[in-house]
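During the reporting period the student researcher (J.K.) took over the structure-prediction task from the postdoctoral fellow and processed the backlog of single-chain submissions. One of the processed entries is reproduced below for the supervisory committee.
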Amino acid sequence: MKKEKFMFYSYLRTLLTFLLWAINGNIHYHDREKILPQEENYILIAPHKTFWDPVFLGYAAAPKQFIFMAKKELFKDRGFGWWISKCGAFPIDRDNPGMAAIKYPVNMLKKSDRSLVMFPSGSRHSSELKGGVAVIAKSAKVKLMPATYVGPMTIKGLLAGERIDVAFGNPIDVSDIKRMDDAGTAEVTSRIEAEFKRLDDHAASFQTKKKPNILTYIYRIPVLLLVALILGLTYAFSYIASFFWQPSTQLDKNK
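J.K. obtained the following structure tokens:
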């Protein structure tokens, strides 16, 4: 598989990060030095808590680029579906995921220079870890890179400038597990849960009630308006482009 950079991915990641900074202005990253080397692929895992935590995780791990699973319903909107496909998203049927949910990310981890973002619980509404991440890591022979987001859980809290802490943990190696049967996946789940618990406690220790100085809104509001305008134009471009260029076709060429 040809290794390549995806300019639209980098562009959109930067744009969304600026947007969230302009909205919140109180974002802090910890232990980024623990992130695995750029030339090594891995699975970035975290508890899925909000709509926006994937953006912070993806930005913190830059310049590494990622693919990620997304529920198929998100692709129904023509413009948004094209948008996230160009950023590496691939659709998953949660009710009937099939083997593609395993084969495609394994293939990409082995043959491309893009890593995988995965939320082991599967959704924001579940805390139960599923075994798919263990199978993918073992099949692709990559490590798990745990991270966590601690901060506002609502739009109101985000807009109010409540502190956001994103922390990275110790890589989890699953190569010592011989088989990913029930016992094997249970062991991986145990390791992930322990690291998530440690990370949540670590990130929470930085939390304070202090909010950004209100004067920062003097320059953040113009940035917010500018970024919102650019995002609107980007969506319009994505909608029009979806009639002429299907990102899935480009992904198929890389399989």
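The committee noted the following: The two ends are 7 Å apart (CA to CA).
J.K. will present the remaining backlog at the next meeting.
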